[in-house]
Amino acid sequence: MKKIKIIAVLGIILAAPIFIAADHVDAPGVAGSSADIADFYAFEPTEGSDNTVFIVDVQSNVLPDLTYGEFDEDVLIEINIDLDGDLVEDQVIQAIPRDGIMYFFGPFSPSSTGLNSQIDTNTALGSVEISSNTAITSTTSNGVSLFAGPRQDAFYFDFVRFNQVIAPTAEDKSGFNVPGTDTFDGANTLSIALEVPNSLLGTPTAQNVIGVPVYKTWVTTNRKQ
Amino acid sequence: MKIYNKKYLFAALFASFLVVGCSNDDDSMNPTPPTMEADFTGTFSQVDHMGRPGINTVLNGSADNKNMHNKTIPSNMQATFQASFQARLEALHDAYAVLLGADPADINYEPNILGDILNGAEPTSEANPNIVSAEVLTTVLSNDVLEVAPNAPTVYFDGGAGAPSFEGAIGFTGRKLQDDVIDVSLILLFGGETGARFNGEGGLPQLVTDGVAITADNITTSFPYIGAPE
What we know:
The complex is a heterodimer.
Chain A: H1 2-14, E1 37-43, E2 51-60, E3 75-82, E4 91-98, E5 101-108, E6 116-117, E7 124-129, E8 137-139, E9 145-152, H2 159-165, E10 188-197, H3 198-201, E11 215-224
Antiparallel strand pairs in A: 1-2, 2-10, 3-4, 3-11, 4-5, 5-7, 8-9, 9-10
Chain B: H1 6-13, E1 44-50, H2 55-59, H3 63-69, H4 74-99, H5 113-118, H6 134-142, E2 146-148, E3 157-158, E4 170-171, H7 181-190
Antiparallel strand pairs in B: 3-4
Helix pairs in contact in B: 4-6
């Protein structure tokens, strides 16, 4: 019984030579597509700030042959924010490109939650020209900063070694190298960034494990049907 | 000083269900064409999901589970994935046990430094066990959302001074670009009660750091905070 489990695990590992965190190429159904989420960050920009920054990376050129280069007009990026800790979105922010411009909607409380979304054009937040190498940003009348365009992939990870670490052999079972080699150094991704006043998002009643009030957030990509 | 208390762990696991309303339909002023010129109609169906970094990649083993995870709403994730995450965590330990010539039954997940920290000043013992079992850890991780505190400094996780005091430990308030989420994840999955269980010494593999740090030009101090493409 035990042996069967081990063999199964090794089989899975050997069958998956491309195996990347954080979310880059995370599942065969979406890997390498224009809707593949690479990363998600959410942070306070400076200590004491009343804003929260959200950064979503989609696509990456960290490996050859991955789709990379342009936002897809059929792919809606949605940032979900749960305020009360029930893991259901109370606020959403949407982003979708049209003709070289990234349009943003929200934050708004969606009329229905779940796996299917419509764009709420009544809650237009603002838009920004999609940048090339030099960052173009815009600020909405309610104080939200917007950005969309290619950026460096800030994620860092020795993923080449990781693939060897999860497939150890009798000759090579030493784990990671210190120092390692950052596979993502030199890679680019397509980013959207928003800096949002917390007052637009609402006050969370959810808490983290140490009792600090938190937004519970996640990002999805959604393809037009 | 240890600021953590185990009760908060359970408070988080059984969070309340208060409803908070908020409406923000402010008009926007933009330098770009009005949105009405473009077509935004249609239904969009979810194809990818991300909360915390690396969850689907590391803890879902099969292609079917990875695909299913991306199309599962967070409120259904614990029921759907916790048990398989726990099995996967144990199986990853077993895989190394085989290579190290050990009995897989002897090398298991060991409750991690979070348990030490949450236990407070009392040392972990039989009477005061480390509460972050494989089940507790995978329960938390199976709810794949990223927590971000609107009114606290952002730290993904920092064990402070480390074992045994963990002085200054802080975390769970979001994810900055520079946070070393891979090392944190490795420490919580493989580091055991000291955070350094598989540290490359004594014939054991190095499994608690990948040995890389962020490249300085990846980030900037002003919006959008990420460096120009290379």
